[in-house]
């Protein structure tokens, strides 16, 4: 192309300095061109190079749209078509050819060409445009070109920049010349309106400044400041206002505040328009179009820093600068990308202000002070200081560019950022450290399923790292290393199609749009695609849906569908392009893409019905692939996982970070146990975006040696037959597994073997069933029982000796039961007795001196044989000897003999008994041990455990010998058995047929009383049926100690079979009731005592009668005769009617006033009282004897009844007189005495008093009652006698009650208590009515003696 055909617009500043620029390019290898936006440097510099004869010009742009539009502009100025002389190449499009001399491209495209053309021989000129943006790619290219220039002296490099620090570029290229060209700008007035004014010094203002100064010094919020600035601009000429705010939230709040501040006509003439990256394309286009609303005089554009350099908003005359921006920064501490709100640099502030001077004079209002502006940094930190360097480090390793510290970056990266980048590449399995500088070591070998699978390293690079096979694959993919790792992992999991779709979707901007006025409807439509457990699958759902519809619909219809459902079609096409590119790049990597599954249905046509528009699309994605897809994705997100903390309601992430799920996620309202996130971004807090529920075990599998494993103390696990420990697995501090049980052998085999030998073979705590083990355990039980019986520890060798026994015989490879089983199967064929312990292996040498016969295993008590249990544990309640008593035998035991203890403990028992004596007595028997040996010799061989009963109690026998040997006398009661150690006193444990404990104690009598009912029930169950009578009879006859030998055995068995309990007996129950009968059982002989028994002994005249089997002779003696008397009284005709007919009127009146419910009840009680003395001393056991006694009783019943009833009438008359006397004596001073008399009267006369008193003692009641009347009469006459008598009675009653007596006595009260009860009445007579006389002598002394 000739020089004449190249035209340079004269109005552009670059054109005006064309010759100077051309001369500099010709004379220097590197030229720096600095100029503001609008100077023409982007479009004219490639033409200048072309004019100089350069024929291979590479021109980079930071953004794809800029590369395309600039190529179209340059081609148009050169009169060429795009793709001919001028072409461009971006990620998805290559519009260039062999004839192309000027090639516009993104800086990423040029980086990609470095892998194929290390010296860039394809180009003779490289133009790096917009270098002031200092992106990571730009800085890398500038560093690479600096190294390249000496190797390519023919290469020309032109760096263009805004007027922001061009000197740094010049210094980077050895003081390359700088040519500055001015842009087409108008003057801009900068006004400072700080929200928080700087402190005002006292030198500039008076101390008592006016009120306006105070107002100015007040702090304002951001939105108040914006509204004030807008009002200030109302005084200026019409023009649009561009307001710079830090983020979307602030834009929304500012929009609400501005709209709320507009009043009157200003509301109709002002339009507020937002502009930020997440707006839909339609809403963004509104900013660049003229307002369609009539009458609008001013538009207020609320924008983020996207309008600072990337976009030029037309019509802007005024700028309001908040001085804030969200600036992406990488946190080396949290290892996440942050978006904090920061104060912008001076250069950014000037860029913002310059937006108001593009078309006319402008005004920029800064909402901060001029001093604040001066304190701000001059330039914004380059991206290399604000982002993760993994991608750059990967490319450097791929290109083998050496150490990053040696690479000529324009601004050297922070070493912490370099380290984090290397750590991320190590996490992804992309590199291997070749200098051992990795904190995890040089080795990156992992399982085939881990992140670093197949990490065969490339030849070692000079940079201290070497690419693994995975790293080489990642370097070939033009995407973020994390996403590239997912693609590589898709090969292993055979989910390439799904992963490529998801990775492409994560790389392009979100295609879902949310217009401000239709946000709710858009969210409703987008909810159809939501997967409840994975945002990644939400993307997959969207893809499948749009792919299906794009095939079904034409281009126009599909565009309408996307617009109706708020899906950005342009971005979807970009998504498709990236997928296709990744598919092409993935093919050489060995990825196989299967055809998508045929979907049976697609989403309904939204044009047909609104209801169909919100229905969920049917994706038909196979659920079986879901885990595989997520595992592949997880390989790139190992440091982006988190586990849910229920207490804090957030997620614990890597390196002690905490995050929440982003509100727009489909999992925002769920609380899965663990999630992974495509990115972690910190705004107001740390948010996880695009998340999915995962199983933490996946991360453990994939992370390989990146995980840290902590193990607790090992412990033996019987079920598994091996030592185990709890393992906690963490990845970057995130707990993947908590307290998982694992075999300890793989961590410490020797320790595990020791635990196995100790627990399994020594202690027997395993599930093996080997003959040697059974024999060893039986031998040990026998010897341990010997220790318990003899109360000697140390007879058995300690466990260490036994451990040595097995350690010597078992090989070192045996560390658990499975390994033992395998070894023993072979070893026992040759040495079957190899592991059998012997008595000599276990016993100490002193064990042979133990006399085992002194500690018998059984106690023979008459015909009963009780098992003895031994326990040697002073802290245990069952320490000592315990006799096991079967419940049916309990009632038959007598305490005699048990106090002598077993022979082996008798010496210690005697010594202990001597030590319980009072000191005055004990001093005659010291030393106690010597006296105990002397007394034992005198006692001789006493063996109560063999069934031979001693002549007396041990204390009584000792008492006799001690008095004789010491020549002194003392009371046997001085022996205090309660002070004898518990293990020296026999303990009784009562058990049922199943061995369950029913009661335990050292007091046999108390146990018998407490378990009396249970014992009686057990006796009933022990009675054999008729079918068993013969068998039990034979057993009885065979008993050596039976009282009923020869034929008595058979008789006992027959009685056992024929006598059974009966209820409600009304006649004699059997021809003959044996006094007792025996039943031989496996644990001894059970004796039963057939007995008639009153169910309610307190009311014998009306109580029902039962035939029961008593457990003792005492029970029979107490119950049988009175029940027979009751049966006798009911077996004769009652003379009640005859007696009542012959009573006098006064007698009838007295009987009617009795405490009985009726006169008939009284007469029935009299009848029972008369029957009691009719029972002979020898109990009635046969029907014939009962009939004889009944006939005799009936013969004189009428006369005896008449006399008894008349006597009762007299007693009741005396009661009435006593009551009257007490009523007459009602002075308060006699209240105590009257209370005592009332209690005495109630104890004498009550319902049932006749039978309880007895016919023989009934006449005495009259005397006792007359004594009450006489006492009442003497109360006021002899107060001193009354007082003294009352005190004596209080003492007497206390003695009686302390002995267990009640008034009236219980029906089962002993004869002693009954005698004491009547002695109390005689004592009252002697104290208060001596003239009536007493039947027997009565005094406190006699009462004490009786109760003693």
TrEMBL record:
Residues 225-400 form the Helicase C-terminal domain. Residues 433-462, 594-624, 1028-1067 are annotated as: Disordered. It is an enzyme of class 3 (hydrolase). Transmembrane segments: none annotated. Residues 1048-1063 have a biased composition (Low complexity). Coiled coil: none annotated. InterPro entries: AAA+_ATPase, DEAD-box_helicase_OB_fold, DEAD/DEAH_box_helicase_dom, Helicase-assoc_dom, Helicase_ATP-bd, Helicase_C-like, HrpA_C, P-loop_NTPase. One of its GO terms (molecular function) is RNA helicase activity. This is ATP-dependent RNA helicase HrpA.
